[in-house]
Every structure is written in structure tokens, then in C-alpha cells.
Amino acid sequence: MSKNRSDGVDDLERSIDWKQGLAIALGVPLLILPSLGYLPMYLSAAAILIWGLSVVQGFFQNAAYAEMATTFPKASGLPGFAQHIFRTENYQGKYDKSKLIGGFSAWSYWFAWTPVLAIFSILVGGYLHGLFPVLGETFTEYQLSLISGVVIFGGLFAVNWFGLKDGAKLGYILAAFSLIPLVVLTVAPFATGHVQLTNITGSWVPTDWAWDLHHILILFGIFAIAQWSACAWETAAIYGPEYKNPAKDVPKALLACGIICFFSYVLVQTAVIGVLGVDGVLAEPVSPLIPVAQAVFGQAGSMITIIMLIAAMILIIQTAYLGSSRAMHSMATEGNLPRSLGKTNRHGTPFVAMLVIGAFNLLLISMGNPAAIVAASAIGYTCANGISLFAYVRAKKHPDFAALERPFTAPKGWKNVAIVFGLFNLPLCLIGVVYLNSLEIGWTPTWVGFIVLALYIPIWFYSQHESSRSKKAATARPLDDDAADLEDEVPVAR
User: Fold this and answer.
1) CA-to-CA distance for 31 and 226, rounded, in angstroms?
2) Which intervals of the chain are annotated as region Disordered (predicted)?
């Protein structure tokens, strides 16, 4: 059961081990699906290298996050770390600007994960539209995406109502029905000889590639898009407050998920380009795995692939739903969002946050373009990673945190590594993804991203006002109680 706190926000329940945390995070390898055809459009076969480098980047970043997860075991991953480290202890004023920095980082992280629900609901609707022609006669793709979103969000809300432990069980089931076929689909082309290395070596980089400012900015933008997928296995650390033994469970879950992601991202992109060639991938940029399945398994393989991909998409929606709801709960716990968003049920599930996230994503589905939503979401992810890495540096140097026990410690000098990757995210990847968006999709995703991030400012000031009012009420209440006791003891003249 969740424990009630005096501030009206509930604590999460410690109920899972590292294998269950890994099961929930196993949806992360599927984040490659929206970008399988996007990266080769700019980098040809060198997209394979970018995926590998991005997962390695995740190892550097996540070593710092694993240390913070064990140093602050009650904090929910990236959102909780930054909020805890940047706040000012015993701050007497009304608005703690340092707390605003940590809260903005958490909000950015929330915006990075939350749109995954809309992105994959749109893809599910698109696949259903192509898989069942009768549905296409009755519903538009938008209507199918909206219906898919309502059904999937409702089903996941019902399953996760009973706690994270049951969510992990669903992760095991969906992993069996999606990741295993995905592995088969990736390995089979190598075994059957359908992968032609000349498709890779003959188109390693675009013929017009040059190391000028234009292409360097594109490269930074591509890294921002890639890390949105390939570094996202830090989600295994976000469940820090719900692991039975965070000191052991967090590093194990992160390491296992990282290894799986490395081989998955590299091999999936290699298989797709090896079978289809770069031109073949660009001909099917949204769903290149379908022609791969047709080439290896025939027409029946295409049907199996679509069904498998739909199951896989539900798994990543589950991962994002749980991660973003924990981020929102963490912000409410720290007083950076209204307290009502931190409410949990008796099973420790932040159900109010899950309802708000579901409604928000039903609105996002109306954008209709998964690439545009990814582009907007990547802006939030670069901000969250940059600020979180700077938070790690502050936690290593600030006297309030330097002496804290660290059951898991990153290698010596890791704060220098964190500074490098923090600067890589902010400002380099942020500038790159804004530039890339302007070239490919236009300015709409960029404006959506910045507007959503900017909305946090008025929400934060309202939350601080709410917290201040709550503190005043708590201070006045004992005085009122004392006055009432005194009134009972002193006779009143009639």
C-alpha cells in the first residue's frame, strides 16, 4: 500500500526487483521503429554507426544516473534527481529559483516520454488501417488512431491500477509476444543470406555529405533524435522508489537493458539496410520491417510482422505510460506540480497522473504525424539529459551531497564525463534538433515543443503558491487548536 504523507502526496510502494524493472523497460528497443527510415534519409548506412554510438552514450550517461539512483533512493529517476539536487534546503522565501531548475528538468523529461503514447497509437491505427481493408472503409486513419488510443490507454490504466508489480507482469507477456519475434525478424535475414553487405558498404554515407556547418548541425540533430530512442533505457532507474533493493537492483536493471539495446539497435538497422538497401528503406520510411518480412518469410510474414509490431507498440506505450506518470508524481511530491497529481490509490499507483497523461495524448494524436511529435519530444529529452547531468556534477561537488552514502559509484572522475555529455546535450543537440526540424518538418514541432516546455512556468508558480498556502494553513492550525482548548477551559459569561 502507498503511505500517505502530510503534504497530501502519497509515497510509492517498494514492490519490484531488477528483473521486473527490466521487464517494464524492455519496451525501449522498440523506440527505434519510428526512426528506422528517418536516420538513413540523412546518413545512409552510417545510421548503423549512429545507433551504436548513441547506445554507448547511454552507458556514459546512465552510469551517472545509476549512482544518483542509489544515492537518492526515494527519488524517481531523472525527474527526482534534478529536483532534489537543485532545490535549496530550508528555503524561507516563496519562490526558490533553484527549485525551478530541477522542476523544469523533470517537466522536460515528462514531455520527452509522454508523447510516446500518442506516437505509437498513431502507428497502431496506421497498421490496422493497412492490415484490415474493411476498417479502412469504415474509419479514417485518424479515427482508428484515436480509437486505438482510447482502448490501449484504458486497458493499461486498468492493468496498472493494481500496482507496478502487475505492470511488470504485463511487460513479461508483451515482451514474449513482441521482442522475441523482433529478434527472429532481425536474425533471420542474416541466417537466410538476405543481408547483402554491399547494400551497406556501397552506401555508407550520402554522396553529397560534407563536413560544413550545415551538415554538422544536421549530425547534432540526428544524435538528438537517436538518443531519444537509444539512450531511453535510463527509464529502468526511474522506478528507484519502487525497487526492493535500489543499491543492487538499479545498476543490474540498467546494465542488462543497455546490453539488450546495443545489440537490438545495431542489428535491426543493419538487417533492414542489408536486405532493402538505402533506397529500399527510403521507399518504406514508416514501416521498413514489413518489406523485410516479405523478403524473408513471404506474404504471410508480413501479416505476422504487423501483428507483432502492434504488440510491440503496446509494450512501449506501457513503458512510457508508467515512466511519465512516475515523473509527474515526482514533480507533485517535490511541490513542482499541483499536489493532486501526486495522489496514489491503495496499490501505490499514481492514478490521477495517469488519467491526465491519457487525456493529453488523445489531444496529441490530432497532430497525426509521428515524426513531428518525435521532433517536438526530442527537444524536451535533450533539456532533461543536459540538466540531469549537470545535477550529477553538483551532487558530486556540493557539500550537502558530497558525504552521502553511494552504494553504487561511477568510475573516478565521472563528473568530467557528465560535464562533456551535459554540454553535448545543451546546447549542441538542442540547437541541432531545432535546425533539423526546420529543414524536414517545418517550425510547428519546434514551437509545440517550446510552448509545452514554457507552460511549466505558470504551472510552477501556481504550485509554489499552493505549497505556501498549505504551509500557512498547517502553521495556523495548531494555534486554532490551542485557542479552542483554551475556550473550553475558560468559562464564558452568559
Assistant:
1) 9
2) 469-494
Q: Report d(CA 104, CA 422) in Å as an integer.
A: 16
The hierarchical CATH code for the domain 18-470 is 1.20.1740.10
Q: Does residue 16 sit in helix, strand or coil?
A: strand
Query: Length of the chain, please?
Result: 494
pLDDT of residue 489: 43
CA–CA separation, 457 and 115 (whole Å) = 20
Distance CA 171, CA 148 (A): 19
Strands (E), 224-273: none
pLDDT for position 164? 63
Smallest CA-to-CA distance from 54 within 267, 224, 215, 214 is with 224
Nearest to 39 by CA among 156, 206, 257: 206
Are the beta carbons of 379 and 41 closer than 8 angstroms? Answer: no
The one-letter amino acid code at 290 reads I
Q: Are 16 and 238 in contact (CB under 8 A)?
A: no
Beta bridge partners of 4: 10
Q: Are 149 and 117 spatial neighbours (Cβ–Cβ below 8 Å)? A: yes
Q: What is the pLDDT of residues 411-468, one digit of tens each?
A: 999 999 999 999 999 999 999 999 998 887 778 888 989 999 999 999 999 998 888 7
- Report the C-alpha gap between 48 and 380 in whole angstroms: 24
Which residues are within 8 A (CB) of 487 and not within 5 positions of it... i.e. 6 or more apart?
none
pLDDT for residue 240: 66
Question: Which DSSP state fits 424?
Answer: I
